[in-house]
Amino acid sequence: MLLPFDFTTDSCLILDFSATNPDLDPTKQPPLNLTDTAAFSDYVFGKLRAAGAQVGVGGYNEHRVIYRRSPHFQQTAQPPYDGPREIHLGIDLWADAGTPVFAPLDGAVHSFQDNANFGDYGPTIILEHHYEGKPLYSLYGHLTRASLDGLYDGKPIRAGDKLAEIGPYPENGDWPPHLHFQLMTDILGRRGDFPGVCSLTDRAYFLSICPDPNKLLRIPGL
Question: So what's the pLDDT on residue 200?
Answer without folding.
Answer: 87
